[in-house]
Write a structure and sequence with these properties.
Shape: globular
Distance between the termini: 18 Å
Strand order of the largest sheet: 2-1-3
Oligomer: single chain
Largest sheet: 3 strands, antiparallel
Strand content: 5-15%
Radius of gyration: 12 Å
CATH topology: Herpes Virus-1
CATH architecture: 2-Layer Sandwich
Length: 88
Protein backbone atom coordinates (compact mmCIF):
# COMPACT_ATOMS: atom_id res chain seq x y z
CA UNK A 1 0.00 0.00 0.00
CA UNK A 2 1.37 3.39 -0.99
CA UNK A 3 1.66 6.08 1.70
CA UNK A 4 -0.52 9.17 1.33
CA UNK A 5 1.08 12.32 -0.08
CA UNK A 6 3.00 14.06 2.75
CA UNK A 7 1.06 16.90 4.44
CA UNK A 8 -2.24 15.87 2.78
CA UNK A 9 -5.45 15.37 4.77
CA UNK A 10 -5.13 11.58 4.42
CA UNK A 11 -1.51 11.77 5.58
CA UNK A 12 -2.46 13.79 8.67
CA UNK A 13 -5.26 11.35 9.48
CA UNK A 14 -2.82 8.42 9.33
CA UNK A 15 -0.20 10.34 11.33
CA UNK A 16 -2.67 11.10 14.13
CA UNK A 17 -2.95 7.34 14.69
CA UNK A 18 0.80 6.81 15.08
CA UNK A 19 2.25 10.15 16.22
CA UNK A 20 -0.45 12.56 17.45
CA UNK A 21 2.09 15.11 18.71
CA UNK A 22 3.78 15.44 15.32
CA UNK A 23 0.39 15.46 13.57
CA UNK A 24 -0.83 18.31 15.79
CA UNK A 25 2.37 20.27 15.09
CA UNK A 26 2.13 19.76 11.32
CA UNK A 27 -1.57 20.61 11.20
CA UNK A 28 -0.92 23.87 13.10
CA UNK A 29 2.03 24.69 10.85
CA UNK A 30 0.01 24.06 7.68
CA UNK A 31 -2.81 26.27 8.97
CA UNK A 32 -0.31 29.07 9.67
CA UNK A 33 1.26 29.00 6.20
CA UNK A 34 -1.96 28.07 4.30
CA UNK A 35 -0.03 25.65 2.08
CA UNK A 36 0.87 21.98 2.14
CA UNK A 37 4.10 22.03 0.12
CA UNK A 38 6.31 23.04 3.04
CA UNK A 39 8.68 21.32 5.48
CA UNK A 40 6.68 19.43 8.11
CA UNK A 41 9.04 20.57 10.86
CA UNK A 42 9.81 24.25 10.20
CA UNK A 43 7.47 25.32 7.38
CA UNK A 44 10.32 26.24 5.01
CA UNK A 45 9.76 26.30 1.26
CA UNK A 46 11.16 23.79 -1.23
CA UNK A 47 11.12 20.63 0.86
CA UNK A 48 11.67 17.18 -0.59
CA UNK A 49 9.42 14.25 0.26
CA UNK A 50 11.15 11.38 2.04
CA UNK A 51 10.25 7.84 3.02
CA UNK A 52 11.24 7.20 6.62
CA UNK A 53 12.56 3.66 6.77
CA UNK A 54 13.55 3.18 10.41
CA UNK A 55 10.85 3.38 13.07
CA UNK A 56 7.71 2.88 11.03
CA UNK A 57 6.74 3.30 7.42
CA UNK A 58 5.82 6.92 6.88
CA UNK A 59 6.65 9.90 4.72
CA UNK A 60 7.76 13.42 5.60
CA UNK A 61 8.35 16.64 3.70
CA UNK A 62 11.62 18.07 4.99
CA UNK A 63 13.82 21.00 3.99
CA UNK A 64 17.57 20.34 3.74
CA UNK A 65 18.26 21.62 7.27
CA UNK A 66 15.49 19.59 8.97
CA UNK A 67 16.45 16.51 6.94
CA UNK A 68 19.98 16.78 8.37
CA UNK A 69 18.68 17.30 11.91
CA UNK A 70 16.25 14.40 11.67
CA UNK A 71 18.89 12.07 10.24
CA UNK A 72 21.54 13.09 12.78
CA UNK A 73 19.20 13.08 15.80
CA UNK A 74 17.37 9.83 15.13
CA UNK A 75 19.85 8.06 12.89
CA UNK A 76 16.93 7.36 10.60
CA UNK A 77 17.29 6.31 7.01
CA UNK A 78 15.40 8.80 4.85
CA UNK A 79 15.04 8.04 1.17
CA UNK A 80 13.62 10.41 -1.46
CA UNK A 81 10.00 9.42 -1.97
CA UNK A 82 10.28 9.10 -5.73
CA UNK A 83 13.60 7.25 -5.71
CA UNK A 84 14.02 3.99 -7.60
CA UNK A 85 13.77 1.23 -4.92
CA UNK A 86 16.50 -0.73 -6.72
CA UNK A 87 18.94 2.09 -5.92
CA UNK A 88 18.21 2.19 -2.19
Amino acid sequence: MQSPEPNSAAWLEALYKTDPMLATHVQSLLADVSRSDVCAICGDDHPAAYQLCAFRPMTLRLCTYCHSLYRDTYGAALHPLNADPALL
